[in-house]
Amino acid sequence: MRLKTKWANKDKERSIEEIASALAFTIWRIGMQGVLNLENENFQTDTQSQRVDLVDEFVIFLTHLTDRIAYRELDDEQRFRLIKALALRLAQFDHEDRQQTDGPGEYRDAFISLFNARMEDYSECKWTPEEGPGFSMTRTFGDHVTNKMGERDRKWVTTYIQDIESPEAEKTLKRAIRSLFGWEI
Question: What share of the chain in percent tops pLDDT 90?
């Protein structure tokens, strides 16, 4: 997946919130690509709303990975600001997409509730800087995606997510983080 992750003015100092906004856009694109990949592999999706549900699962998983990576690079206050800014920007993307798919309404609070619940789920799972997400984390991610899929292929989705989508999404995320933050990860 091609991403634009270079700043136009490289010398300008960026706030954590500015970086988070750029990273949120990239994370949302990775999530949309993940859903497209599922569809290209003939996994069943039925509605645009369901597709947004799936994107939500991808972006929350990727935000959790970002949090794990940031733990080593930022102090607690900076890390909190980063994840908060990511969550709020992703909630805005979700809100905009849901207004198109589900009609007028307020969708940010529902996204933030889901975000908090999933972050808690993933916090119980293993992650190491050397190996990335452990089996339990990718399994949890796969199960959340499976629960949002159509009935036809449910038994294969978790394995596909664990074996194909999770590693590919993580690789793209790390490339974006390296570029935006300049971290050696």
Answer: 84
Q: Answer yes or no: pTM beyond 0.85.
A: yes
Query: pLDDT at residue 13 above 90?
Result: no
How many Å apart are CA 94 and CA 166, to the nearest integer? 21
- CB count, 10 Å around CB of 150? 13
The DSSP H or E segment spanning 91 is helix 76-102
Radius of gyration of the chain (CA): 16
Cα separation of 165 and 46, whole Å?
20
The domain segmentation of the chain, as residue ranges, is: 16-181
pLDDT of residue 153: 72
User: What's the DSSP call for residue 151?
Assistant: S
Q: What does the angle CA 68 – CA 170 – CA 89 come to, to the nearest 5 degrees?
A: 70
- Report the distance separating Cα 31 and Cα 27, nearest Å: 6
Instruction: Look at residue 95 in the predicted model and tell me its pLDDT.
Output: 98
Specify which residues 127 forms β-bridges with: 133
- What distance in Å separates the CA atoms of residue 29 and residue 56, rounded to the nearest whole number? 11
